[in-house]
Task: structure prediction
Amino acid sequence: MRLKLIVLLLAGTTGYYTVSAQQIPLNKYGLAVLQEKHQYEQLVKKDSSQQLVDLEHFIPGIKKDVRYATTNNFTHQQLYTSTGIYLRRPAAIALKKVQEILHKKGFGLLIYDAYRPYRCTELMFKIVPNDLYAADPRKGSGHNRGVAIDLSMVDLKTGKPVAMPTDFDDFTFKAHQNYQPKDPTVTANRNLLRDTMKACGFKGSSTEWWHFYLPDYKKYPLMDIVF
Result:
């Protein structure tokens, strides 16, 4: 198996980052994927922006519904053993701004998924081998890099999720950003979430109203580590 040493070239950029003094094996797709916590810890020592932040501690009042820790998801399998939600520090800071803006308008964030170990991306693609809806493991996912988030909103008065075009992980046209709901409240909710996320630096998906990520995601290595 080929190995990547110490410095990994960032695909699509001109920069480099140092992972560790140890060798990182390439997987069958030729991707360097961090698999050991000590590799992650050494990376964070060199660059604090690489730290994964616990969103429940970092963002006051944030809600979660981690479907992949249950069988209530499109795989019908429990993929996670924990409901912890984590993002790299820059993504967490940006998401905290989103929460602050939404709170002033009577809403809060509801998180479905954040950092996702690479192994789960492989399993998801086996079940839905369509990169419009499931990340291709030959490229990896922004979730594997810790800078992608799947989310919705709750009404602060009721504590309940607001109406959106579909449920989470709905692989139909109704989940697309250019779908026009008949209910103006649904449209307003989707637009508020999308516009606020974009204003705080996130980019959205054209096929999933709930999915957002940082545009500079390639600065962060793929990881297959369970936290």
